[in-house]
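re the bet — no i am not wrong, look at it urself. input seq straight from the record:
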Amino acid sequence: MISPAERTRLIEDFIGYYAKQPADPSAPQDMDIPEFWAIEALDEAVHNNPELAWSVILELAGLVKSQTAIGCLAAGPLEDIIRYHGVEFVDRIEIEAKRNASFRYLLGGVWPSEDPDVWSRVEAVRVESW
């Protein structure tokens, strides 16, 4: 469990990390900057604390502005939540996608899940793939 202050720092440093990256999403990312810890921490949370990861992903969905950060949030933590915990989260994914345009857009950057039942439900609520 992390404190509210640590959670806030995680979100701020995730955003800060992508603010320091090149504007071109195809350019290599710098993993040597201090804020990179937040990327690793969110990845770890997906595997070890998916409830925390889910709440952070939802908050970030409304906060991140750069296309690089949006793409990495979609193709990283959100895609992994669906891949590893899709059965447990698919109901919430459907609800969130119906009420949250930013989250629905984020789902467009997720690649198909290995679970066809989960994936068909995600596909039904996301915008077109990007």
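see?? The CA atoms of residues 69 and 83 lie 20 Å apart. told u. also The radius of gyration is 14 Å. so pay up
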